[in-house]
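Limitations

Structures in this collection are predictions, not experimental determinations, and the ligand pose is part of the prediction. Treat each record accordingly. The example that follows, with flavin-adenine dinucleotide as the small molecule, is included so readers can see exactly what is and is not provided: the inputs are given verbatim, and the output is the predicted complex.
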Amino acid sequence: MTSNDDGYERTNFKKKHFQFPGRSNSLRQFLLILLSISWMTSTRRDATIIAFNPARITHTSTINSLSTCNTITTNQRDVDVDVDNDESTNIIIKVPWLIIGGGIHGVHIAASLIGKGGIKATDIQIVDANESLLHKWKSRTAATGMEYLRSSAGYHLDLDEHSLRRQFGVDTGNAAVGNIKGAGRKKSKKNRKKNVSLQGITSNDVFAKDYERPRLDAFNEHCDSVITKYNLDQLHVQGIVTSIEPKEGHVKVMLSLLSEQKKNNSENEIGGMISYTYKAQNIILALGNDEPSYADWVDEKDIEQGFVRHILEDTQKRSGEKVRDHDVKDVAVLGGGITAAHKVLELVRTNDSTTRTNCSTLKRRIHLISRQPFKEQQFDTHQDWMMDQAASKRSEEGGGYGTPDRQKKFKSSTCWKERRKMIVKERVAGTVTPAIFRGEGGLCYAINNGDIKWHHAEVVKKRYIEMDMDEDENVNDNYNNIDATTKRSTQKRRIQLSLSCGNTIEVDEVLLATGFGKKLPGGKLIKDLVKNFDLEVSDFCGFPIVDENLSWGSKGIYVAGALAELEIGPSARNIAGARLAAERILKAATKTKA
Ligand SMILES: Cc1cc2nc3c(=O)[nH]c(=O)nc-3n(C[C@H](O)[C@H](O)[C@H](O)COP(=O)(O)OP(=O)(O)OC[C@H]3O[C@@H](n4cnc5c(N)ncnc54)[C@H](O)[C@@H]3O)c2cc1C
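Predicted complex:
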């Protein structure tokens, strides 16, 4: 097994096996049948070409065409399977829109292209490394223990601004709802009730009292309903994009399968080496952030042995780590922002419920280590940065201010260094909402109460210590039920942290809530694209310089999320940023269509 620059592990490619990288089993079966027939009827294997569109032609017509000439011309546009002399197979998939990244941004943009842009779903594919769309969003938010989102109910993945509120029974009255067909109609009481699917809850439970922030499970349920509404699961192909080359009239995108899929290929005794190439008229880079950022003192061994864990690290990558749940008791959370705050408060809640259920006084000791004192702020950025062009226009037409001054100032600057500085100033890292900070059961309360020991400090030294379990007066009940071998191999080791404030603490696990790195997202993939195809980036920060509609270099390449930051501004990475990006890409898409 090898580990590549993109951080995903690969097994060596096994010859003679084939599997389509899509999610649908029936589609996979269907392709296998097609390939088997073509294989059997082919006289010149080096010339076998099959072209078809599974979404638009019937099974029977395909088989009939195949049995006569091996080539289907019904719709050459979508899939060409090219079997080479040396038994390697190159599957070429032609698609008008290829979205790379099926996270918050990729999903909302796909929904917008279909729902607002009138682009057919069959003209879009979403490539994402994970087995389901929104995997990273769901696993990361779950890992923090957050109960409510930071952003309010207007920021979600559907098109109609009030869709999330409506799904959970909030009467949005006659509020402006944009131009979505059927949106804005008042629902009868009966219908409203039907829409609420989380059992036994009212809209009061679903939305926080401050800024109508949605509860995480409700938000996720709404995300799933958007995926279902636009059939986005059907457009998802699981794989990793390894290279992007702008060509005349299309963008060539190479796809690599994940090791698990490659393993499955060994069940299909059909072809030789398989490679996948997309020829896309347009691609949208919605790759997310840089990788999670680790403190300097952390090394591989700390992670492998399960003593240190970044809570935003992908669960799929964590599979090799040792599970030490039975002896994890005292925990240090490192970080000074909302993620760290969510995590310690979740640990306090778990402590409370464990002691209540077990009627025992056994509690984890919870340490919170942060370099800076906590700063209070409602949102990641000022709301002015979240206003889209349609809302600005509505405001202006209604006699309001229109585009907020912050956005105007940002747009009027043609100096990328200055824009980056505005982003850094406006997107203050390490802030927490008033509810989390001072609210009932919030951080201040838990610290004053002694549930959390807060250290205003940095870690200056780490070392492992051996500890006799008898020395620990709070020995975990579970420990007594573990067999002798496990006890010997895992007992007694703890991690000791010396802090800059002079304190020394001993814990069983350190959880990092230190956010993401600041590098250009996409790693080698984007670096190569910039280097080989002369795409413009800022000399100061290396991020893409794109036009107003987020087109990068007029080559059919669009960007979203962090990659669009120098055009969208400080909210680019957020859910609001996904809505802003979709609005602009849609403008370009409609122009292309016309
Ligand atoms: C814990 C947490 C809470 C947050 N809370 C809020 C909030 O309340 N409100 C708010 O507005 N924002 C919030 N955010 C910020 C923001 O909305 C999220 O970070 C959002 O998930 C970013 O979406 P994305 O699509 O850009 O990235 P991601 O969700 O990371 O998706 C990118 C996808 O692209 C895939 N990918 C990348 N490279 C490749 C490749 N080469 N080939 C194939 N696939 C690839 C990745 O595997 C991934 O699935 C929060 C973020 C976190 C971490």
